Amino acid sequence: MPVIATRLAVASTALVLFAASIAAAPAADKKYDTGATDTEIKIGNIMPYSGPASAYGQIGKTEAAYFRKINAEGGINGRKINFISYDDGYSPPKTVEQARKLVESDEVLFIFNSLGTPPNSAIHKYMNAKKVPQLFVATGATKWNDPQNFPWTMGWQPNYQSESRIYAKYLLKEKPDAKIAVLYQNDDYGKDYLKGLKDGLGAKAASMIIAEESYETTEPTIDSHIVKLKSTGADVFVDITTPKFAAQAIRKAHEIDWNALHILNNVSASVGSVMKPAGFENAQGIISAAYLKDVSDPQWKDDAGMKQFLDFMAKDFPEGDKLANEPVVGYSVAQTLVQVLKQCGDDLTRENVMKQAANLKNFRVEMLLPGITINTSPSDFAPISQLQLQRFKGEKWELFGDVISGDVGG
User: Fold this and answer.
1) What pLDDT does residue 45 have?
2) Are strands 386-393 and 396-399 parallel, antiparallel or unpaired?
3) Which phi and psi (to 5°) does residue 270 adopt?
């Protein structure tokens, strides 16, 4: 009998040890890279809180507020987000400095939604060489969708070429004999939009575009460019500018009585940051494109997603301008990141962050326009490729037409 008892004791001990090993197994499955622990996910961000593109700083402030809200609710899979955001003044050399600081000193898991085409271009190769995700960059440059050559970089918003192709489709249908004058920012951002417009117009681009004028972000005013473009006799003005210069362009065009059809790129379609400062009376009839709901549009007053956004603004970011586009963007892209991090589970490696970001299927955040979804795959790093045209009337944008895909093929 004693021998049997001993054997039973050994067997039960083995069972206890086996059960304990099963219980401990999930802990062993946790995988972390620099910037992630059992309690924290460290995220880097670079924004122009100062300088010519400072209107966009509200995006970073909105994201910080949203992550504070997520942390107050318990974080993501029990981990709190440590969001470290630096100012680069929209200056590429400063962006390089801040990116190195985030990756090498702060040791973030990845850099998220840093703003601007020139700033992100300056750190594009560095981030990929370091194999640190440059995730959901806040620029619509087409080059962010290149998983084969830059597997650590992904955009979020519709790309600029897709957007300007949509304007080209509209002009070919509604004003096929248009005389187009283009004002564009003299950098990758401006040139990307211009390429999309020309590609969209196809063989007619050479005859329809009668003037191209570029400006530098260091210029205090673009008034002289507007006067020069009016003198060409153009009846369509394609305005590829950031908010400060967009407001100037709208004001000056009205002041000199240039009544061309004004097409304004989405990045400057903010009621709060552009249309209001430019003067609502000066902005009537401007056409742009949208992929997110506009707070000033009464059609969303009973919309559940809009109510959640306004509730967030009131409780978590009361100092933000709810009429500006920037908080809507910051809120929506932050929600997309939360989804990616939830999908990561306990595998918070840089490789898995990119893998999950490239595995979003018909995902929606509540401020996207109806019919627009977020989709990615290992070969498609362009999450949003649909937009809807809109016209400015009174003090708000009015959507018209169908949701259009501006996919850039080949």
Assistant:
1) 98
2) antiparallel
3) -75, 125
